[in-house]
DNA sequence: GACCTGCTGCGGGCTG
């Protein structure tokens, strides 16, 4: 049915592919996109043909003889653009439609050609759009003035994060400059029912955006194993078992950190060498050189026969095409259910195959958390997304970007443009004016009669290469072996001459460190320990913690657990046996010792963080262990501690101000927040780093259970 | 107890 709606060249393409039938999401999107004017969110699992579901009807409907770029495809990753460009070119092969990559590593001559003759399809990143607004705003109208469709790939990766707000703002600004509406199609595999509203908001037109959903799920087989880890390194018994699990498979291993990713790749390779197994052990994460990573992806995608094992961080979580994988290994719990979904989705991609996952735990609480994530996975739970309501940091960033775009703008026009932008719909005009005045005081902006231009301090910020993105990264040291780059790592005190490090699945000895140039020279070595990398703070959602408590207090038996796991779970259950917990929302165990109490909150990271902060500013010695969600407080009276928390919550803003004056660590989540006036700094820290409202509600609602 | 993401314009030197 849908097939008949397509234009003849597209039908010809479909026939030439030898497809038996259109996939459900494709059939649905073809008829809807062709017969309505709505925006759509296409949600269906990995490898279900979403790219074609978007492009087939769009190519069929669009007249590419018109001047200007007709279709803009936006991706969160360069690697994904490089993957998708081949598929899109293949689709366009007989249609005489130009396809152009536009990102920081794309060919400049081809970009120039596009500017001379704007047409066809462009694949781009949000940062490249930002850069175009700042450096060549005339190209926005020149290229995108006649745009018909925007496709946003992996749209879930933009939801609830600053980068998504930036993209939302940029889409509005293109729309405004083009003075013409284009349709938006978002693609995603992992998006919960509660979260569609956030995807709709991103389009700027909630009313007019519909969701097309294919809920079909692959059956998943899971098994759990337990090997207690006594040091930082993985137990040998675990590695031996892991070797047996993976040796005759195409396997992906997710060990959660870059250091462990290297440890797994090197040690499995060693075991395999000893008994003449295959040699295809790789590591894949942000510190491994890009070319090496690409060759690993190429190997996985293009070899049918050989088995392999790639040890990876979340770099292999998104849609980069690595072909079919038989088995997923997760070492210790993922930090979210969403992440578990993405990882499991990478196995059994062929029709009719099952997904297979093997989860190892090295610590009892990690086992409990893994099991909680798995239970929630089976229930189709995904963490709800929080979109910032008042993103003052992005407001400042976009304010500077817009002033540069117009190279001088009337104050009232600037206020108008900002207050019309749906990203800032909850920020008042008074707030925008306050920020404008502050920006003039700080010399970010300069007033010339009624017009605003960039001030000296503003020029310095906007004219930096670092301006285009809303996230920050640490400077890296290049790791070089005889002139060839192996990767790049953040500097840490353990990095010393003659020390060893693991990188790109190989062991290296450090021969020389050039601190000024940021270069580490290495030679191959026989033995070594993993480099340690620095990291920030993450967050576990309260639903995962509640599920952990529920498992702990239930008598449920899980067939996915091996005997060792069952024993460990029983040990944990025994520890909490005497706490009479009936209401999983409110009842929380409390252990009282001499001058010290331990509260198990079984709540989310942000709530734990907020409670601990209020205790600390009340003068208590507090240790937050977010690993088992416990808060240790030095005190004899918990009741007194609770009343102090409530008392100090009333003076929260001044406590936060005090900490923010000390240093900016509380603000490290926001790249542009450091330039804000104090009251807005406090606002964004309260909204995004903590969650005091929920924390206080939690405290008020909590019923302490002792034994 | 983390992990990940992206990037201009200009000029100089080199290659074909």
Structure characterization notes:
- The chain has 5 domains: 212 residues, Rossmann fold (3-Layer(aba) Sandwich); 159 residues, P-loop containing nucleotide triphosphate hydrolases (Rossmann fold, 3-Layer(aba) Sandwich), CATH 3.40.50; 77 residues, Orthogonal Bundle (Arc Repressor Mutant, subunit A); 49 residues, no CATH class; 127 residues, no CATH class.
- It has a 7-stranded parallel sheet with strand order 3-4-2-5-6-1-7, with helices on both faces.
- Helix 15 crosses helix 21.
- By secondary structure, the protein is of the alpha/beta class.
- It binds one DNA strand of 16 nucleotides through helix 7.
What overall geometry do the principal axes of the alpha carbons give?
Answer: globular
Task: Note the total helix count.
Answer: 26
Using the CA coordinates, give the radius of gyration. 27 Å
- Which whole number gives the mean pLDDT? 91
Secondary-structure blueprint of this entry?
Elements: H1 2-5, H2 8-17, H3 24-35, E1 39-44, H4 50-61, E2 71-74, H5 78-92, E3 99-102, H6 108-116, E4 121-124, H7 126-135, H8 137-144, E5 149-152, H9 162-178, E6 183-188, H10 196-202, E7 209-214, E8 220-226, H11 236-246, E9 250-254, H12 258-274, E10 281-284, H13 290-302, E11 308-312, E12 327-331, H14 337-344, E13 355-361, H15 364-378, H16 392-406, E14 409-410, H17 411-420, H18 429-441, E15 445-448, E16 451-454, H19 456-462, E17 476-481, E18 484-490, E19 500-503, E20 506-514, E21 519-524, H20 542-553, H21 563-575, E22 587-593, E23 596-600, H22 605-617, E24 622-625, E25 630-634, H23 638-650, H24 652-662, H25 678-689, H26 692-701, E26 703-705
Parallel strand pairs: 1-6, 1-7, 2-4, 2-5, 3-4, 5-6, 8-13, 9-11, 9-12, 10-11, 12-13, 17-21, 22-26
Antiparallel strand pairs: 14-16, 15-16, 17-18, 19-20, 20-21, 22-23, 23-25, 24-25
The protein binds one DNA strand of 16 nucleotides through residues 76-78, 103-105, 125-128, 130-131, 134-136, 157, 161, 163, 256-258, 285-286, 313-315, 317-318, 332-333, 335, 339, 366, 463-469, 471, 473, 533, 535-538, 540, 626-627.
């Amino acid at each position: 049915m849908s097939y008949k709606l397509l234009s003849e060249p597209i039908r010809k393409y479909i026939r030439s592919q030898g497809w038996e039938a259109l996939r459900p999401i494709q059939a649905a999107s073809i008829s809807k996109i062709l017969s309505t004017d709505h925006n759509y969110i296409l949600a269906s699992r990995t490898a279900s043909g979403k790219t074609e579901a978007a492009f087939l009807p769009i190519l069929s409907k669009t007249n590419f003889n018109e001047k200007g770029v007709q279709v803009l495809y936006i991706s969160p990753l360069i690697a994904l653009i490089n993957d998708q460009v081949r598929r899109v070119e293949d689709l366009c092969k007989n249609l005489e439609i130009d396809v152009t990559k536009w990102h920081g590593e794309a060919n400049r001559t081809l970009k120039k050609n596009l500017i001379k003759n704007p047409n066809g399809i462009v694949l781009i990143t949000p940062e490249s759009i930002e850069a175009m607004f700042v450096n060549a705003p005339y190209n926005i109208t020149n290229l995108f003035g006649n745009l018909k469709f925007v496709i946003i790939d992996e749209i879930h990766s933009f939801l609830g994060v600053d980068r998504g707000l930036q993209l939302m703002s940029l889409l509005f600004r293109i729309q405004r400059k083009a003075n013409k509406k284009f349709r938006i199609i978002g693609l995603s595999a992992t998006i919960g029912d509660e979260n569609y509203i956030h995807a709709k908001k991103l389009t700027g037109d909630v009313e007019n955006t519909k969701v097309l959903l294919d809920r079909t799920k692959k059956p998943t087989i899971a098994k759990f194993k337990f090997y207690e880890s006594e040091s930082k390194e993985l137990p040998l018994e675990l590695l031996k078992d892991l070797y047996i699990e993976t040796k005759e498979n195409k396997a992906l291993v997710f060990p959660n950190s870059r250091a462990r990713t290297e440890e797994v790749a090197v040690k499995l390779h060693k075991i395999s060498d000893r008994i003449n197994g295959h040699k295809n052990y790789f590591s894949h994460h942000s510190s491994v050189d890009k070319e090496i990573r690409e060759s690993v992806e190429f190997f996985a995608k293009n070899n049918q026969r050989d088995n392999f094992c790639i040890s990876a961080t979340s770099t292999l979580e998104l849609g980069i095409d690595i072909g079919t994988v038989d088995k997923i290994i997760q070492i210790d719990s993922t930090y979210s259910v969403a992440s578990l979904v993405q990882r499991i989705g990478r196995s059994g991609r062929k029709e009719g195959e099952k997904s297979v996952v093997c989860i190892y735990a090295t610590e009892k609480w990690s086992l409990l958390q893994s099991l909680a994530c798995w239970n929630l996975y089976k229930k189709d739970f995904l963490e709800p997304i929080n979109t910032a309501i008042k993103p003052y940091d992005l407001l400042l960033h976009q304010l500077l970007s817009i002033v540069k775009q117009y190279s001088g703008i009337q104050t009232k026009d600037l206020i108008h443009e900002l207050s019309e932008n749906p990203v800032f719909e909850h920020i008042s005009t008074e707030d925008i004016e306050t920020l404008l005045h502050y920006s003039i005081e700080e010399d970010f902006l300069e007033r010339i009669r009624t017009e605003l231009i960039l001030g000296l301090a503003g020029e310095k910020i906007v004219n930096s290469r670092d301006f285009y993105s809303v996230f920050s990264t640490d400077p890296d040291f290049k790791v070089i072996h005889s002139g060839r780059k192996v990767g790049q790592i953040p500097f840490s005190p353990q990095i010393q001459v003659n020390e060893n490090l693991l990188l790109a699945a190989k062991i290296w000895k450090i021969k020389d460190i050039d601190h000024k140039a940021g270069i580490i020279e290495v030679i191959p070595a026989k033995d070594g320990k993993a480099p340690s990398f620095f990291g920030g703070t993450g967050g576990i959602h309260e639903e995962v913690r509640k599920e952990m408590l529920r498992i702990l207090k239930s008598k449920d038996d899980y067939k996915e657990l091996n005997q060792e796991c069952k024993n460990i779970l029983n040990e944990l259950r025994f520890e909490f046996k005497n706490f009479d917990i009936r209401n999983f929302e409110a009842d929380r165990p409390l252990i009282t010792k001499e001058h010290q109490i331990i509260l198990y909150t079984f709540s989310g990271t942000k709530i734990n963080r907020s409670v601990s902060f209020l205790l600390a500013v009340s003068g208590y010695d507090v240790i937050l262990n977010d690993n088992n969600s416990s808060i240790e407080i030095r005190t004899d009276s918990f009741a007194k501690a609770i009343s102090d928390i409530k008392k100090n919550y009333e003076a929260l803003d001044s406590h936060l101000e005090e900490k923010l004056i000390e240093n900016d660590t509380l603000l490290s989540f926001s790249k542009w927040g450091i330039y804000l006036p104090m009251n807005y700094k406090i606002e964004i820290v309260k909204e995004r780093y903590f969650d005091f409202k929920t924390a206080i509600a939690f405290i008020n609602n909590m019923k302490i259970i002792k034994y």
